[in-house]
Amino acid sequence: MPVVALDTRAWVIRVGVFAALLALLSPFFWAIYRTMAFHVLPRDDYAPFLLRLVGGPGGAFPGSPYGYRILSVAAAVPFYYILPPLRLSELPAHISVAYLKATAAIALLSWLGMVFAGFAVFHVATRQCGLGRRDGLLAAALLFLLCWHSQAYGIDPVAIMLVAIAVAVLHRPGAFTGVAVVSVIADEKVCLVLFLWLGIRVVLHAADRRELRVQWAATVVALALYVVMLRLVHLPGNAYQLQPHDYVRTMLSNLVACVSGRGVVLDIVPSALLAGVAVAGWPALRAGLRGGLFRPADVLVIPALVLVALAVTDSFDTGRVVMHAAPLFVIPAVGSLAHWGRWYQGVVRPRSEP
User: Fold this and answer.
1) Burial of 255 (0-12, 13-18, 19+ CB in 10 A)
2) First to last CA, the chain
3) H/E stretch holding 171
4) What span, in angstroms and rounded, lies between the C-alpha atoms of 37 and 87?
5) pLDDT tens readout for residues 181-237
6) Residue 19 burial class via C-beta count within 10 angstroms: exposed 0-12, middle 13-18, buried 19 and up
7) How big is the CA angle at 147 (ends 146 and 151), to the nearest 5 degrees?
8) Is 238 left (phi over 0), alpha (psi -120 to 50) or beta?
9) What distance in Å separates the CA atoms of residue 117 and residue 105, rounded to the nearest whole number?
């Protein structure tokens, strides 16, 4: 009985902390929702897709690659029915109530994706990597901030959350395989990040070839399933993704876009920022984090993602694609900070003694 009471108390505390955290972070939901509702920034608009799924007015099935991400949009369906109409002042009169509800549902899904991605990173940092709770919170906060360099007013945070969950279950082949395969109809960038991450690991480390062969095979299968889906379903749009002879032309076009002002902000800054976070984690990776989840070779995922994004995405998408790998680097970066803090205290304290 005492054990049950203790467990109940622990769960009540966790639920209370989670509810308090949601209340604390709720202004970010409103920021996302207002940005989407007023079309402040160019974005991928999934509201018509959601309306199509629920049979609402104004629903439309999108082209490629958006139409393949049906699971991420379907995850917002419950919010469409749960949320009341969240009216905003000074909205254009032509925006329907149904469209506004669908937009709010997508915004809530995006916001929760950021929050749950942080929870996954906190769990990995504290339970698997041996970091303290303060370090886990710092890693979660860093990931939350980095999510804003993706398309936070779309469904990118959901994909980043799936990458974080995949990291958390890396050493559970069945669960990892499930995440990798499901990601094919959630967001193809998830299986791409996982494929590059584990591909680099199995090529460069013999231990990973033995321990992660099932997981890496799952990413290969997931990526193959996505290609098959592109071939069979063949939604209109982005046909060049299936035409390798166009990759060089697309890459050159994207490189030209990167040197513009908008390209610097949307492509170069996020890529350089994540590279900086990866480099910051190098001391912890060299010293070794408990759990074996991360290695110094992981930093190669960033240039690999840059090359892929330049070859198969539209202009100004490189930065947000690269940012999907953020869960791989925030924990080592915070681990390095903790490692440096312990070293600093070890150096300074003896000097302060009389």
Assistant:
1) middle
2) 52
3) none
4) 10
5) 999 999 999 999 999 999 999 999 988 999 999 999 999 999 999 989 988 888 887
6) exposed
7) 130
8) left
9) 18
